[in-house]
Amino acid sequence: MTEASARFHRSVAEALADPHLRQALDRTTGRLAGGLAKAFATIPDAGALRDTARRIRAHTIAHLDQHLDQFERAATARGCHVHWAPTAADATRLVVDIARARGVSLAVKSKSMVTEEIELNAALGAAGVRVVESDLGEFVVQLADDRPSHIIAPIVHMSRDDVARLFEDKLGARPDEVADIPAITAFARRTLRQEFLQAGMGISGVNLAVADTGSLCLVTNEGNGRLTTTLPRVHVAVMGLERIVPTAADLGVVLQLLARSATGQALSVYTNIITGPRRPATSDGPGEPDGPDELHIVVVDNGRSRLLGGELAEILYCVRCGACLNICPVYHHIGGHAYGGVYPGPVGSVVSPGLMGLDEWSELPHASSLCGACRDVCPVRIDLPRLLLNLRAQTVAARMGPAWLRIAMPLYAAIATRPVLYRWLGSLAARLSRMMGHDGWLDRLPGPLSAWTTERDFPVPAPRSFVQEHHAHAPRAGGCE
Ligand code: SF4
Questions:
Q1: Is 354 inside any structural domain?
Q2: How far is the CA of 381 from the centre of ligand 1 (A)?
Q3: Domains of the chain: total
Q4: Helix%, strand%, coil% for the chain, nearest 5
Q5: Ligand 1: distance of its center to the CA of 368 in Å?
Q6: Domain range spanning residue 445?
Q7: What is the pLDDT of residues 187-219, one digit of tens each?
């Protein structure tokens, strides 16, 4: 077993042994998944809308180069600076250079998965720029020196009391200032307001960019996104290169699904469409009163273009709603941290190995029951089980699985393709199991199969196999009436 695999198994074991985590996950993912069902019931033909959204995303990804070119031209015409970052290191260097050139020492940042992916905070910190997360959940994660455990609910693993204690310890909050959730949010707001006023740079992600207008769409529920993108003099928006739609009409389709899938809202509280920096005063008018003087857009590849045209390209349709996490039985049990990367859940099990290769992430495609719930709930109908199976096949082809499985599968194939041997061994195993079982159950299986029986019992095989039953009951050829 590789070090990465061992780390994954350790994290899973720790997560499974944590009842506090289980309660927190049940509470939040249950609420989000329940909200989704109600929100979709308000759309007359949700299925057709999802089909349309999938077509938009499929078309966009199939012609991504054209849409990105169009976006660059339109955004530049609106006064933006568009930068291309082939790798995470290129992206962080670009942002650091922008900050250094403008003498920025404090940046506020709204929630963004791609900036987590490229580890932007660490790079800016090393360059002497303090970054303050302004989304409440991300602010808590930063304060706790932790990692987000959900795409849209970063502190799904924490309780209100955990956050109150953290604010007391790290920010010196009095107990009455963190007595309940409104008090906690008011305290965070007071703390963050000062940072917004002093920051020289605002950093955001991009939910979706619009190719033909050069606009950026950001959806948030806390208003921190608006402060981040309007108060500081410089706004840097970091986007994965797949996060684009051709037109504003296409954006309208995806937005109808995004908030419903993410939080069960018809729309997020704030839907911001940003087209260029603040317009200066001209002879035609007084200009805009707020907004940044400079808007930089850093388009990050970091492995995405490798997926284009391949078996895993479909994952680039993802709009990061998090619905597949909320419905996933595996995520429910182990939470986000156990997945090890920035992207947890079924989507993360494809994105992490897809972007960063299987070497470090070969266990993730196996962390799925393949029940298909993620595919059923995905607003753009990504066939996640198919992608997971494809990755599993790649791990087998690269001989990455555990040694026992590499020996066992060819052995099984040899037996399963020889009916007489298969039936004889099957009946022998069934007899032995029944001798070892109690009340129809086995409480211990041998070797690696014991992983199953450490958590649950295994039923002993029926006295007669399916084939024997079939032969006993199936009508003889020609006997149908
Ligand atoms: S894979 Fe689908 S359900 Fe999961 S985060 Fe992406 S868009 Fe949402």
A1: no
A2: 8
A3: 2
A4: 55, 10, 35
A5: 15
A6: 412-473
A7: 999 999 999 999 999 999 999 999 999 999 999
